[in-house]
Amino acid sequence: MSDNEKKINEEVENEALKTEEANESKASEDVEEEKKECCKDKNKDKECAKKSGKKCKDKEIEKLKGELDEVKDNYQRLFAEFQNFRKRSEKEKSAMFTMGASDIIEKMLPVMDNLERGVTTLSEEDLKTPTGEGLNMIFKQMQTVLEDLGVEAIDAEGCEFDPDLHNAVMHEENDELGENVVSLVLQKGYKYKDTVIRHSMVKVAN
Q1: pTM of the prediction?
Q2: Which of 18, 46, 107, 171: CA 20 to 30 A from 162?
Q3: Helix/strand/coil (H, E, C) string of the chain?
């Protein structure tokens, strides 16, 4: 083989080698590019999954908030109804107690009237006797019991006539008294707290 042929063969081999290396380099670059694209796709998938998961969480949070608001609203309504029921029950209970107490007190008043009438008709000497002292003691004890219960006598004599407190059964003309003034108490009236148990039976002047 001549020198020229050898030189040509070497050049051909070198060109083939360069072509092979170029092909290998390009293939390697293609692989790297594919890897990069693959990574991009994976990152994109992850990002999409992350966004999708966030949307799901947001929807779940909104749903839970809605349920919580509903439960809170139901609780507030139930609490308000319970408060109204308790107030109404306490009011009814108080009214029933007052009614029951008023009935009992009303039955005790005739006894109080008789005791007071008996004491006021006794002279000072009679009040000093054992019977008089005993009667006066019972009368004062009865007064204390009624006061402790919240019962008080209604002011009447010398006061202006009040139909909510007084029951006028007689009338007189009296220049010494003003118009529509109670001149005489025929039967003492009583009230329990703010409830009138018995109106005062009175005579009204002018």
Answers
A1: 0.57
A2: 107
A3: CCHHHHHHHHHHHHHHHHHHHHHHHHHHHHHHHHHHHHHHHHHHHHHHHHHHHHHHHHHHHHHHHHHHHHHHHHHHHHHHHHHHHHHHHHHHHHHHHHHHHHHHHHHHHHHHHHHHHHHHHCCHHHHCCHHHHHHHHHHHHHHHHHHHHCEEECCCCCCECCCCCEEEEEEECCCCCCCCEEEEEEECCEEECCEEEECEEEEEEC
